[in-house]
Amino acid sequence: MRIPRHLAIIMDGNGRWAEQRQLPRIAGHHRGVETVQTVVKECRAIGISCLTLYAFSSENWGRPEEEVNALMGLLAEYLRSELKTMMDRGIRLKVIGETSRLPVEARKVLDETVARTRDNHDMVLTLALSYGARNELVRAARYLAGEALAGRMAPGDINDRTVAAALDTADLPDPDLLIRTSGEMRISNFLLWQLAYTELYFSEVLWPDFDERELRRALKEYSRRQRRFGLTGEQVRTDDCCPGEGHH
Ligand code: FPP
User: Is 60 a catalytic residue?
Assistant: First the structure.
């Protein structure tokens, strides 16, 4: 079975899962963390090299303070409890997003975990935190404009490669597969540049109910799809086609 090198997931439906059970929304996030633990282990076991999870969006800052604080607390708790798993299984942690907005406590444990797992090479687990793709693109544009203004590059040197290298995901391949749970069919400001040729898969299952079986179902569907990157089916079958080489 062909497996994605990079799998990205929009974990949606924690709130609805809790509401259906007349529980506070945070109870859904708690269960959501358990799903994260399951999915990380399963992806590692399957041999997926990069897993990127949308854990907190730029827009999520607008949620009630209580929910934001609880999510930040859960994040710190998750990182502390998962360090052993990350070390045992060779998982390196990476963070993308405007992390300067995160509370000091969360930032501290994130920095520590990133540093401790730095030399792990079997899988990269990227958490998108305080992440919005437009914000990421704005930051990249500002950086490139600064470089041009300082004379370190000409505006004409800005191309697909230099833009990609100025994004938070610079060292990651583009996602091969994006999964969104809970039946919503939107990208919601996630990895807009990087998803250009990504296969999209929408699952009806709410994130707390997502499990190994649902993951395998998505991967099976992915392995059946033919990726053409703007070429014809025949070309893809004969060439060893890959993205980012001028095919649109
Ligand atoms: C979407 O559910 C989920 C989030 C906004 C946060 C995702 C967070 C977790 C799974 C837990 C924390 C993550 C880590 C990595 C420790 P929603 O609240 O938008 O659900 P709804 O659409 O049903 O309201």
Answer: yes
Q: What is the pLDDT of residues 8-55, one digit of tens each?
A: 999 999 999 999 999 999 999 999 999 999 999 999 999 999 999 999
CATH architecture of 6-132+174-237: 3-Layer(aba) Sandwich (3.40)
Residue to probe by mutation, ligand 1, list 9, 10, 19, 29, most atoms within 8 Å of CB: 29
Rounded to an integer, the average pLDDT of 167-193 is 98
80 membership: H or E segment, kind and range:
helix 65-88
d(CA 72, CA 69): 5
Asked whether the beta carbons of 230 and 247 are under 8 A apart, the reply is yes
Instruction: Put the strands of the sheet holding 199-202 in their side by side order.
Output: 91-96, 123-131, 50-57, 6-10, 177-180, 199-202
Active site residue 189: no
Residue 67, judged by CB atoms within 10 A of its CB (0-12, 13-18, 19+), counts as middle
Q: Which residue reads 């609805």 in tokens?
A: 16
Domain ranges of the chain: 6-132+174-237
CA 239 – CA 248 distance, rounded (Å): 15
